[in-house]
């Protein structure tokens, strides 16, 4: 759509420019907050992944005992998993509220002595896996919002604000030219009137 070179369009462009300049700092602040949150969640995820890896290395020496035909899944089951939401920089992300595991204690006399430690390791593995999955979801949601916010910041900074400034410049030049032409027409008309009167 061609740019109208009128005073009302000049007013609209100035209002748009003010609006974009007013919202841009808010978007930039949100972008900074999201970047900080993404870094924080990423660091927490990496730390938890390191913990998981360390725990797996520590269990490596006796993990082969899990190959025995024992109903471990019957002895340790997920009783309750509750997720909540937390509002971070304009994004609702899941948080782990409750993770309860139910342990059906086997008869310790009929099973190997490592069962207690094995169930404890399994419990730890389940808890860490749940926490890790939630951190990954948080990271994905925050990164998606960061991408959207960055696009908006770029749109305002690189497109909308320069476009409005250029439109204002063009309209002001056109209105100035129109005013000069009006003055020139007025002088010509006055001169013709004076010549006719003379």
What's a concise summary of this model?
With about 200 residues, this protein is an alpha+beta fold. It has 3 helices and 2 strands, in the order H-H-E-E-H. It has a single domain, classed as Orthogonal Bundle (Helix Hairpins).
Q: How would you characterize the overall build of this protein?
A:
The structure is a single chain. The protein has 198 residues and is α+β, with helices and mostly antiparallel strands. The protein has a single domain (7-197), classed as Orthogonal Bundle (Helix Hairpins), CATH 1.10.287. The protein is 71% helix and 13% strand. The protein contains three helices and two strands; from the N terminus they run ααββα. The chain has helices at 7-59, 72-75, 115-197, and strands spanning 76-88, 91-103. The protein has a two-stranded antiparallel sheet. The longest helix is centred in the C-terminal third of the chain and has 83 residues, at 115-197. It is rod-shaped. The two termini are 49 Å apart. The model has no long low-confidence stretch (mean pLDDT 87).
């Amino acid at each position: 759509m061609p740019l109208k070179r009128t005073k009302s369009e000049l007013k609209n462009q100035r209002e748009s420019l003010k609006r974009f300049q007013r919202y841009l700092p808010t978007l930039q602040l949100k972008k900074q907050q999201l970047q900080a949150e993404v870094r924080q969640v990423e660091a927490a995820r990496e730390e938890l992944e390191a913990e998981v890896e360390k725990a797996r290395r520590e269990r490596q020496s006796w993990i082969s005992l899990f190959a025995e035909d024992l109903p471990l899944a019957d002895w340790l089951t997920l009783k309750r998993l509750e997720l909540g939401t937390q509002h971070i920089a304009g994004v609702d992300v899941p948080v782990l509220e409750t993770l309860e595991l139910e342990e059906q204690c086997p008869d310790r006399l009929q099973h190997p002595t490592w069962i207690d430690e094995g169930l404890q390791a399994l419990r730890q593995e389940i808890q860490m896996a749940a926490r890790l999955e939630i951190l990954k979801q948080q990271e994905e949601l925050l990164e998606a919002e960061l991408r959207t916010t960055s696009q908006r910041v770029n749109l305002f900074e690189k497109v909308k604000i320069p476009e409005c400034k250029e439109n204002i410049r063009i309209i002001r030049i056109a209105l100035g030219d129109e005013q000069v032409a009006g003055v020139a027409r007025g002088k010509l008309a006055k001169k013709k009137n004076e010549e006719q009167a003379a």
